[in-house]
Write a structure and sequence with these properties.
By secondary structure, this protein is α/β, with parallel strands linked by helices. The chain is built from 21 helices and 18 strands. Strand 10, helix 12 and strand 11 form a beta-alpha-beta unit. Bound molecules: adenosine-5'-diphosphate. Its EC number is 5.6.2.4.
């Protein structure tokens, strides 16, 4: 039958050969072996269950948590001349009934449903009355409570499957799964270890970069300036931040869309549409945006603030370059972002073991920002629980050239200035004092009488400000949690002031287009 599978690949999809892993998955499903496929985003998971669905008798049921994607998938199949439909809450009860009737008549080769459908007895009865070719679990990691996107409705399909009298072969597909999650999926769906097809999830076309000690707005405006025609996503941590960054870019005359949970559904749809259609090249959004978005030409994903864990980071960053073309995944790191994520964990309803787990995951995310190892390898090793990944050769750590500079003296100047200013002011005024500026505020607060006034006069005010941001990122300075950050020394500052600890900084070129001066060890 595998020869027929190759014919179908050519006939329906117009592709000449299978991609890594596809053939094995198809083969196993045709042999009636429950299978778990772990493949990167854009790796071609759909074909893995669509071809067996075409070859086997009966209807294939595909369970997907992404309502917004179902219609696209169904449209794509119909365009290929394959009978397919979906049933989910976006349809009226009448429409759902009509489609169920057609399912009972065996009119479809493919039926896409949301997990909740398995809670309906009439649905179970319907599928029990027809031959089934297979049941595929798209985004299968949602079934595991160890996954970052656990959906209880997905998990409750497992007991419901017992009521399916003519249970066919099961296919579980995911692009993100830790060992724990894989084991969980395996046991829940009775998949033998021999039937896991794991092509890994390295994305060779993605260049990961961590940018620290930079003014974030200056960074994004100079980065975007160099690629105005390219499509990109900027993820922020909060709705307010989305509004703020969106307004900033719009003011610069850029075509920019925004998306967050505070907008009406109509607004969200319009903004999303404008982005997908390339009417607006940039999307500024919270993590509410992206699930079920299949836009292949996203050239960059910038995280304006620290994501909560590596799982969500990789998934969001992975929305870049689905077409396989070189794309950037940039994380703008600042020390104060950690506070926000900690606060979100503190405020969550999770019980304390779960909170401890979230903290540990956040710590891994923070480590990613500080590591000097290959960034892609760091992520892949995180999922694999062992250090086996090879260097990507294109991330900001792999491409780092140049020596580290000893910045201890400059750090001492900044730290003592903050101390002398009474730990009452923000980064920009501190930079002014160090520069020796004649600014009104400097005079007003008599900061020009401090011994640290003008101590860094040979630097530009911008460089001093960036260096202060670097010291915040490195946790020598804390910006506090006020709306207008107020700098104070952290406990890490003392050894530096006493000359017991050195401060090293890398001076690197992150990217030919981006004006990035500093990277930190
Ligand atoms: P995933 O669900 O794994 O993210 P998709 O199934 O959406 O990926 O496939 C990504 C893209 O790759 C689609 O445009 C698909 O048509 C294409 N594709 C899949 N298999 C092959 C193949 N064997 N040869 C060429 N292109 C393929």
């Amino acid at each position: 039958m595998i020869a027929q599978a190759e014919d179908l690949l050519q006939q329906y999809y117009g592709y000449t050969s299978f991609r890594n892993g596809q053939k094995t998955v198809i083969d196993q499903l045709l042999e009636n072996q429950n299978t778990l496929a772990v493949m990167p985003t854009g790796g071609g998971k759909s074909i893995c269950y669509q071809i067996p669905g075409l070859l086997l008798d009966g209807t294939a049921i595909i369970i997907s948590p992404l309502i917004s994607l179902m219609k696209d998938q169904v449209d794509a199949l119909q365009a290929l001349g394959i009978s397919a439909t979906f049933i989910n809450s976006s349809l009226s009860t009448n429409e759902q009934q009509e489609r169920l009737t057609q399912v009972r008549l065996g009119s479809y080769k493919f039926l896409y449903v949301a997990p909740e459908r398995f809670e309906s007895q009439s649905f179970i009865q319907t599928i029990n009355s027809i031959p089934l070719s297979l049941i595929a679990f798209d985004e299968a990691h949602c079934i595991s409570q160890w996954g970052h996107d656990f959906r209880p409705s997905y998990r409750s399909i497992v007991p419901a499957l017992k009521q399916v009298t003519n249970l066919p072969v099961l296919a579980a597909m995911t692009a993100t799964a830790t060992e724990e999650v894989m084991t969980d999926i395996q046991s829940l769906l009775s998949i033998s270890s021999d039937n896991i097809v794991n092509t890994g999830f390295a994305r060779e076309n993605l260049s990961f970069q961590v940018v620290k000690g930079q003014d974030k707005k200056s960074f994004i405006s100079s980065y975007i300036e160099a690629r105005k025609l390219e499509s990109g996503i900027i993820y922020t941590a909060t709705r307010k931040q989305t509004d703020n960054v969106h307004a900033f870019l719009e003011k610069k005359g850029l075509q920019v869309a925004k998306y967050h949970g505070g907008l009406s559904e109509t607004q969200r749809k319009e903004e999303q549409f404008a982005f997908i259609q390339d009417e607006k090249t940039i999307m500024v959004a919270t993590n509410a945006f992206g699930m079920g978005i299949d836009k292949s030409n996203v050239r960059y994903v910038i995280h304006y603030a620290l994501p909560m864990n590596i799982e969500s980071y990789y998934q969001e960053a992975g929305r870049a370059g689905r077409d396989g073309e070189p794309s950037d995944c940039i994380l703008l790191f600042a020390g104060q972002d950690i506070q926000l994520q900690k606060f979100l964990i503190d405020q969550s309803m999770a019980d304390s073991p779960k909170k401890a787990q979230e903290y540990a995951k956040l710590q891994a995310m923070i480590n990613y920002c500080h590591t000097e190892q290959c960034l892609q390898a760091f992520i892949l090793d995180y999922f694999q629980d062992e250090s086996i990944s090879k260097n990507c050769g294109s991330c900001s750590n792999c491409t780092h050239q140049g020596e580290k500079t000893d910045m201890t003296r400059e750090a001492q100047m900044v730290l003592s200035c903050v101390k002398r200013m009474g730990e009452r002011f923000g980064a920009s005024l501190t930079a002014k004092v160090l520069k020796g500026s004649k600014d009104k505020k400097v005079k007003e607060f008599r900061l020009d009488s401090l011994s640290t006034y003008g101590l860094m006069s040979s630097y530009t005010e911008k460089d001093i400000t960036q260096f202060i941001h670097f010291l915040i990122a490195e946790n020598f300075l804390s910006p506090g949690q006020e709306r207008f950050p107020i700098l104070s020394l952290t406990k890490n500052a003392e050894p530096v002031l006493k000359g017991k600890q050195k401060v090293w900084m890398q001076q690197i070129k992150i990217n030919p287009h981006a004006e990035v001066d500093y990277q930190v060890s």
